[in-house]
Amino acid sequence: QVQLVESGGGAVQTGGSLRLSCAVSGSDFVINVMRWYRQVPGKQRDLVALITADGITHYVDSVKGRFTISRDGAKNTAYLQMNSLKPDDTGVYYCNAERGGDWYQYWGQGTQVTVSS
């Protein structure tokens, strides 16, 4: 059974940093794209960053220059380094892994990030 386990969330003050991790276990397939999403209460889950199997990255404008997504293929793990955090970065961060071939997507359980002013 495929599982995505996120870790690294927490509470920080404005300007602080956190590093999120997403470990994928139980997969015997190629993971194509890995993504991080953020969700706040009452709103939809929004894409924050993604990284392809080839290492191509994409960020939403609000996090460019502050967040860095990376992945370790050997460990089936993705990371999100978040620097210069702002209160607007607060939310539950979800990891998403897309299976190569049929684009089926797996989700983690989410990790809370809270940035206080």
Helices and strands, in order, run as EEEEEEEEEEE
Strand content: over 45%
Helical residue percent? under 10%
* Overall average pLDDT: 95
The total of beta strands comes to 11
Structural category is mainly beta
Low-confidence stretches: none
Summarize the structure.
With 117 residues, this protein is mainly beta. The protein contains no helices and 11 strands.
Task: Please tell me about this protein's structure.
The chain is an all-beta fold. It has strands at residues 3-7, 10-13, 18-25, 31-39, 46-51, 57-59, 67-72, 77-82, 91-99, 105-107, 111-116. The strands form two sheets. Strands 2, 4, 5, 6, 9, 10 and 11 form a seven-stranded mixed sheet that branches. A four-stranded antiparallel sheet has the order 1-3-8-7, with no helix packed on it. A hairpin with a 4-residue loop joins β7 and β8. It is globular, with a radius of gyration of 14 Å. The N and C termini lie far apart (40 Å). The mean pLDDT is 95.
